[in-house]
Amino acid sequence: MLYDISLTIKYDYAAPVHSGRQSLRLEPRSLPEVQTVLSSRLTLEPTANERSEFDDFFGNRRCDVSFTTPHSHLIYQVNSRVQRHPSGPTLDFSPPLARLPDELAAIRAMDGNQPLHFLSPSLRVPLDEIFTTYARKVVSPVMSAQQAIISVGQALHQDMTFDARATDVNTPVLDAFQRRKGVCQDFSHMMIACLRGIGIPAGYVSGYLRTKPPEGAERLEGADAMHAWVRAWCGREAGWIEYDPTNALIVEQDHIVVAYGRDYADVAPVKGVLRSAGGQTTSHAVDVVPL
């Protein structure tokens, strides 16, 4: 599937910003057998005084920018063309959940794609017994790792309510879980916490979501914005699987990956600081167009 993707993020400042520095993770990344970025361009208005582009530890495309000239607004514009490859049948080659620790113990590599980085607590995802207890109620040791991942995702989708007003980007995952409400970021953090609690390495995926509802049906929740889902490790032979707990489905061609990380803190689309005396307003616009 071929897509043209456009993203516009605009900040309007009540008072001029005299300086600022941001790290951006907005452009899709090429992934072997998953997706190929045919072209991509990130433009800024005004132009940054300094700009540096590189791949981070997890292989994401990162752009660091700094501004030293006063400005009253800031616009980030991304235009990308991405080929999303078909995933084929989802066959289960994963080991029984009880055997997963042995496969993890045999890993010696430590690059950013290794599951050992995604098993411990991270900044946004603490290991709390409340998540482990929840996960143990919906899985059993005789399940395969893939079956356990899907079972946890489906349970969260059933028990939690998507509510865009219930949380914000800074809401702790435990608070969202106790409220039983949240957005895709919360659903993903909850699922990661549950999976890590039962020994399954899991991480956070940021990206874009295309929706194609049947006639008369509602669009998938999370459309027209950047979306988030979960990446979990199913053993040495099966590798990684991506699951969207917000919509209760295994990720296929309608999800376009931007960044992988341990949680939102690793993949925040825009993160940084600025020097200003006033507040700000922000608007986002996303368009994912199949060609």
Strand order of the largest sheet: 12-11-10-9-13
Number of helices: 6
- Beta-strand segment tally: 15
Q: What oligomerization state is this entry in?
A: single chain
The major beta sheet can be summarized as: 5 strands, antiparallel
What is the H/E string?
EEEEEEHHHEHEHEEEEEHEE
Low-confidence stretches: none
Structural class: alpha+beta
Q: For the record, give the distance between the C-alpha atoms at the N and C termini, rounded to a whole number.
A: 8 Å
Per DSSP, what share of the residues sits in E-state strands of 2 or more residues?
35-45%
Rg, Å, rounded: 19 Å
Helix content: 10-25%
> Overall mean pLDDT score?
93
Overall geometry comes to globular
Keywords:
19% helix, alpha+beta, 6 helices, 4-stranded antiparallel β-sheet, single chain, 291 residues, globular, 5-stranded antiparallel β-sheet
Write a concise synopsis of the structure shown.
19% of the residues lie in helices and 38% in strands. By secondary structure, the chain is α+β, with helices and mostly antiparallel strands.
List the helices and strands and how they pair.
Elements: E1 2-17, E2 19-24, E3 35-45, E4 50-55, E5 61-67, E6 71-84, H1 100-105, H2 129-138, H3 145-159, E7 161-162, H4 173-179, E8 181-182, H5 184-197, E9 202-209, E10 226-233, E11 240-244, E12 249-250, E13 255-261, H6 264-267, E14 270-275, E15 280-290
Parallel strand pairs: 7-8
Antiparallel strand pairs: 1-6, 1-15, 2-5, 2-14, 3-6, 4-5, 9-10, 9-13, 10-11, 11-12
Helix pairs in contact: 2-5, 3-5, 4-5
What does this structure look like?
This protein has helices at about 100-105, 130-140, 145-160, 175-180, 185-195, 265, and strands at about 1-15, 20-25, 35-45, 50-55, 60-65, 70-85, 160, 180, 200-210, 225-235, 240-245, 250, 255-260, 270-275, 280-290. By secondary structure, it is of the alpha+beta class. The chain is built from 6 helices and 15 strands. It is globular. It has a 5-stranded antiparallel sheet with strand order 12-11-10-9-13. Helix 2 crosses helix 5 (about 185-195), helix 3 crosses helix 5 and helix 4 packs across helix 5 (about 185-195). About 20% of the residues lie in helices and about 40% in strands.
